[in-house]
């Protein structure tokens, strides 16, 4: 079990974390751009957004 733990830690240290984090940020950016680009019925609602209320007719 100890040998497996050491191998896992060595593997995690061997990864290029800057590239992995950059790739994750790039994917998130593409997801945001794609969500903005598509039609409203296909768009995903953002977390914590509120419905936009209509203005009353008597307000300028």
Task: Write up this protein.
The protein is mainly α and 60 residues long. It has 2 helices and no strands. It has helices at residues 2-14, 17-37. It is elongated and about 75 Å long. 0% of the residues are buried.
- The average pLDDT value, as a whole number, equals 84
Computed CA radius of gyration, to the nearest angstrom:
22 Å
How many helices does DSSP assign?
2
Would you identify the regions where 5 or more consecutive residues have pLDDT less than 50? none
The percentage helix is 55-70%
SS-derived structural category: mainly alpha
Which percent range describes the beta-strand content? under 5%
Q: Report the principal-axis shape.
A: elongated
Largest sheet: none
**N- and C-termini, Cα separation:** 72 Å
- In total, the number of strands is 0
Helix-strand string: HH
Features:
elongated, 60 residues
List the helices and strands and how they pair.
Elements (H helix, E strand, L loop, with lengths): L1 H13 L2 H21 L23
Short description:
With 60 residues, the protein is mainly alpha-helical. The chain has helices spanning 2-14, 17-37.
């Amino acid at each position: 079990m100890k040998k497996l733990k050491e191998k896992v830690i060595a593997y995690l240290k061997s990864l290029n974390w800057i590239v992995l984090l950059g790739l994750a940020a790039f994917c998130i950016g593409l997801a945001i751009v794609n969500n903005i680009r598509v039609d409203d019925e296909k768009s995903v609602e953002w977390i914590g957004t509120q419905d936009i209320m209509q203005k009353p007719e008597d307000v300028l």
